Amino acid sequence: MRKLAFVAPAWLYVAVFYLYPLATNVRMGFQDFTVTSFYTGVAPFVGLRNYREVFRDPAFAGTVTNTVLFTAGSLLLQFGIGLALAVFFKRNFPLGGALRSLLLVPWLLPLVVSGTAWRWILETDSGVLNRTLLNLHLVSEPVPWLASTDLSLTAVTLVNVWVGIPFNMVILYGGLQAIPAELYEAAQLDGAGAWQRFRRVTLPLLRPVTTVVLTLGLIYTLKVFDVIMVLTQGGPADSSQTLTTFSYDLSFQQLAFGHGAAVGNLLVLVAVVFAIGYLRAERRTP
Amino acid sequence: MKTALGVSILAVMLFPLYWMLNASLLPSTELIQPEPTWLPIHGTLDGYRNALQSQGGHLLTSLYVALGTVAVTLAVAVPAAYGLAQLGAPLGRTLLFALLVAQMIPGIVMANAFYVAANELYLINTPIALILADSTLCVPFAVLILHAFMRGIPAEIREAAALDGASSLRALRSVILPVSRNAVITASLFSFLFAWADFLYAVTLTTRDEAAPITVGIYRFIGAHISDWNSVMATGVIASLPVAVLLVVAQRYVAAGITSGSVKD
Amino acid sequence: MKRLTAAAAAFAALAVLSACGDGAGTAKDDTGTLTEIDYYEAAPQNTQLPKLLDACGTEVGVKIEHQQVPRAQFMPKLLQQASARTLPDLALVDNPDLPQLAASGGLVPLKELSTEGLYPSIVTAGQYKGDTYGIAAGVNGLALYYNQDLFSAAGLQPPKTWDELTAAAKALTKGTRYGIAFSAVGTEEGSFQFEPFFWTAGANLKQLDSPEAIKALTLWKDLVDGKAASRSVVTWTQADVNDQFMAGNAAMMVNGPWQLPTLNAKQGLKFGIVPIPIPAPTAKPVTPLGGEMWTVGRSNPERERKALAVLKCLLGKDKSLEWSTAAGYIPSNQAAAAALAQSNPQLAAFVEEVATAQARTADLGTDYPKTSEALFNAIQSCLAGGKSPQEALKAAQASVK
């Protein structure tokens, strides 16, 4: 099979690099895995006990809600702003290319560093954001962005949107480039306005790229770890804890590795559901 | 006019980075003063002096690892995406599914497995271990993106090449690749950035300071200067400058694609 | 495009070549080199430790490969090494983590090393099921730092009791300056900072919602609600707290002796140190014992013997005193600590506290991490989430049952 030769390396790659870690994690979810297990390699199987205990954990329900809000908010704003910027930068203007590529610069910094800059900006008393809002009389007293259980999730979501915009913009921009200019010309001749052209030409033809950006965005957002760890460590009082940081917290703060693995597996399950959704959506596109 | 708007968008997006630059020029205690200092008028270059002395080697390692990751990623992803999108290779959808799900495996679990494997293979502290580990962040992404773009290429283009007697491999090289140049550059760019910014695998697979890439270098540097934030931020600025230049250069390739018309190429 | 592909191929080839030349796995049968790991991310600890290791390595006749990883990566890294059976010969672990690691069987019992003359709490913290697995060269505790200029300008004396603490904090809160700073961050650091108040009030980690515990949390809540401490305390690490104090944003702070080298280097800052205030003049102060312990990982008899020899050198009188002085720690040897307190008055408050300090794992052993998590979550939901101390601690107690 000639065709198989092209995909064989990718299959081999999946088998070598992902299969073993995935199997390990699935197995750990059914085991009472302790610090000792790492050394001895022995961990008793406990059936679904880890899952039962995770579901009963008082922090679990709030964590699921946070994850949904964080993911939906991030995805919506990242994609919306990313698409708007992609459309904007598609028009040719002086320095456009350079400006577009500079938008990627935030990605070059480890989040340890840019996250720290954000912490200063969002600091309640001395942060530049609160100073600006106060000076513009938009608020009457400093907003505790990271220091309140009501706002911390909003704050980490906004920072995550900031991180995600360049990714969305660049890929959507690439998708826009692939749309033949003749189609726009034809639509214009038919008397379609700018908004009509966007709805009738851009959106449908961008659909394969849109689907992949949203699916990848969803998975990357579910996986977000550094942003939250640097800004709030999931706090205060778990108010910005998502399933990913919760899994890490169970494993390495509480040393309950079986529980951590169980939460990790729930996330894999979510990915399975959305992967099926992606394949469906993908089949429907021409 | 549009340039002005573009500049303002950029200014908003890059404000946190400006704030870092500002911080890198300020003495540490000014950073948390109640009235923020907007311009580093009383600037100090101490941070840069400190940072320059220590991070050069780490920058090179990062560059090397990131380019290696791009190479490995493209080597796996381009043929796979082509096979799936254009040739209808069997089990294609299963592969896409597997790649999507694979990305959800917790990073720390991957890191544990890689550490054990790299240790057995005597690859700890080698760039090859980092390249392979970092490529796992990029391959699924690259296959999906390339697949999404290559599906949009009309089959007639490839069939025309086949009529001319070109093999599937030659059709890929001489017809499909040039047409999907934008997608390849996008995939390469992000593979580069994923590898450049990776911290977890870097700290897992290196034990010696000499072998560590820039992310770990910066982290150690933060530690050594925890109350000396201007040095830390200076390192951040220095770390991002060379690659920022690279980005501006790379966008020329994308720009070239625009003018020649991507599908007609 | 072709050029791009060619360049990529060339890089791949280079990567493979370099990998062949640089192979460097840790061969376990090599006894000329020992490996060491610690999480000291900050100066002066991370600059001083390698020097000491080199000196002791030379003395024993062995090369020591030093590795430092971030605190958050320390446990994951040790566990990876445990599963690959390549535990480092020497590891400097945080004392609450010791029981877990000792339980794994990967550590060598330190039978040959004497713990005579060390603070009893330190010896206890290093034990698991009757055997000693970890010994600290230096330890630390928490005390109250105060800004002398601000105190004398206000005509105040450093506080001794909780009432005096609250009164001083309120009196010194002015404009953008808060009376006091402490860390209530959502990690072990937050629990560590709260425990002096918690224990001194008479509370016990086995009962998180006791009236004494509620009293301690009420003290913190009143400070934050009364605006004498910033709401940001829930996001500040102990290093952030130190920055706030140095910048003059807080008149007092709760912190450890490891900040002394940094504080002493800051010009124009005059500060004093007193023990953590107590609820009533008759209360017995109890603070948590802080600091890291040296452990020896299992390998082969020859390596273990050399690692023990290095450890003996590190724990020796000269070296442990040298380490304590340079890194801002209290020697774990009682006589050495007393001598140091005499010669260095800055350390007197800390030495006084370490004498009555309690190991965090003394009551709970391997269950400590879970309880600590419940405790810092309760602190955070009380300070940042509007819950009353009663509600918050009750929820915490329910979650550890």
From TrEMBL, chain A:
Q: Which InterPro entries match?
A: MetI-like, MetI-like_sf
What Pfam families does the record tag this protein with?
BPD_transp_1 (PF00528)
Q: Which GO terms describe its biological process?
A: transmembrane transport
SUPFAM superfamilies on file = MetI-like (SSF161098)
Q: Which keywords fit this entry according to its UniProt record?
A: Cell membrane, Membrane, Transmembrane, Transmembrane helix, Transport
Q: Where in the cell is it found?
A: Cell membrane
Membrane-crossing ranges are 6-23, 68-89, 101-122, 205-222, 256-279
Task: State the PROSITE patterns in the record.
Answer: ABC_TM1
- GO cellular component labels: plasma membrane
Q: Which Gene3D superfamilies match?
A: MetI-like
Per UniProt, residues of the ABC transmembrane type-1 domain are: 64-278
Q: How does this protein sit in the membrane?
A: Multi-pass membrane protein
**Similarity field:** Belongs to the binding-protein-dependent transport system permease family.
Which protein are we looking at?
Sugar ABC transporter permease
Q: Which taxonomic lineage does the organism of this UniProt entry have?
A: Bacteria, Bacillati, Actinomycetota, Actinomycetes, Micromonosporales
TrEMBL record, chain B:
The protein's matches in Gene3D superfamilies, at most eight in alphabetical order, are given as: MetI-like
What protein name is recorded for this chain?
Sugar ABC transporter permease
The subcellular localization recorded is: Cell membrane
Task: Name the protein family.
Answer: Belongs to the binding-protein-dependent transport system permease family.
Q: What is its main location?
A: membrane
**Is GTP-binding one of the keywords?**
no
Question: What Pfam families does this protein map onto?
Answer: BPD_transp_1 (PF00528)
List, alphabetically, the GO terms of the cellular component aspect.
plasma membrane
Q: Where's the ABC transmembrane type-1 domain?
A: 59-250
* Topology of this chain in the membrane: Multi-pass membrane protein
Q: Which PROSITE patterns match?
A: ABC_TM1
Q: Which GO terms describe its biological process?
A: transmembrane transport
From TrEMBL, chain C:
According to the UniProt entry, where is the signal peptide?
1-21
Q: Report any one BP term from Gene Ontology.
A: maltodextrin transmembrane transport
For the keyword Glycoprotein, the answer is no
GO cellular component, alphabetical, reads: ATP-binding cassette (ABC) transporter complex, substrate-binding subunit-containing
- PROSITE patterns per the record? PROKAR_LIPOPROTEIN
GO function terms (MF aspect): maltose binding
Q: Which Pfam families match?
A: SBP_bac_8
Q: Which SUPFAM superfamilies does UniProt cross-reference here?
A: Periplasmic binding protein-like II
- UniProt superkingdom: Bacteria
What keywords does the record list, in alphabetical order? Signal, Transport
The family line of this record is: Belongs to the bacterial solute-binding protein 1 family.
Name of the molecule in the record:
Sugar ABC transporter substrate-binding protein
Q: Which organism is it from?
A: Dactylosporangium siamense
